[in-house]
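Board notes (copied after class):
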Amino acid sequence: MKVLITGGAGFIGSALVRVVLAQGCKVINLDKFTYSGRQENLTDASLDKNYTLVKGDVCDRSLVKEIFAHENPNVVFHLAAESHVDRSIDDSAEFVRTNVVGTHNLVQSAVDYFESLSAPDQRLFRFVHVSTDEVFGSLQEGEYFSEEMPYRPNSPYAATKASSDHIVRAANKTFGLPTLVCHPANNFGPRQHPEKLTPLCLLNALDSQPIPVYGDGSQIRDWIYVEDTVAAFWAIFKKGVPGDSYCISAESSRHNIDVINMICTVLDKITPHSSGPYSRLISHVADRAGHDTCYQSSAEKLRSTIGWSPTVPFEEGLERTVKWYLENKTWWQSLRDARKRQGIRKAR
């Protein structure tokens, strides 16, 4: 089976590449290699005879059409996206370009390709679109996202992902493209860019730098280990109903400040500092513009219809993550000062 993955050099994308190669499939990875896509994420995959890398942009319609025509994929996993909320607050133009225009180009090419297939091949084809739980907006504590909820995106990033979801849905309803939409919760794990909360906090702690916490840190996020997420993608591809969407959650929600304190506790255990607990470095900063209060999803549909369930508890995943960053300094060192945490809109 041939699998086209967009954004396969990123944090989640590279984890998916490894899973799909382990299934014995041929992988075609289309990646632009922006700041968060790295060759180092795919060192092992690049040695696999079933792996092909295409350096390019999902916004390049002719390139995308050429890939479909030349490779004849049986399934597409679309992960290529700008994904950091803070960056979208500072400048959303690239988010519109990649997340909206890029998705449109990929979907239109997929529709053309799908319509050229024989009836048996059409029955096998799937287009798996990776979205986010953030398209649903913000909840009150005790509430949960579900697949039936209306879209209420509150950040420029979430708005572009909501737009891409609608493009995918329209292709299913109008052209019969067999689409599957995934809404994963907050991912964490090895190879995540240092601008994200988990690696940012642990790397700042290791450098004895302030650990920034937006506002009072009471915001709630739903956390899932990256290996569980990509296992869910594969399960949805295999068993999902075309036209459906699925929330992917380990149902492991926590206040941001509690997650940060847990990171400090793991570091205290693994590599204690002579100056005392790492929590001494926690520093509250001005809150992010339009910061959503709570994201947490129910995975009931995924459990009951697909049979998927997470395998890595949050505490175990966090310890694995901390150990990976401690053991892979060369991976993250060059990224540390490339971009500072944002979230407060700059004057123009």
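Comment from the instructor: The CA atoms of residues 31 and 55 lie 5 Å apart. The chain has twelve helices and twelve strands.
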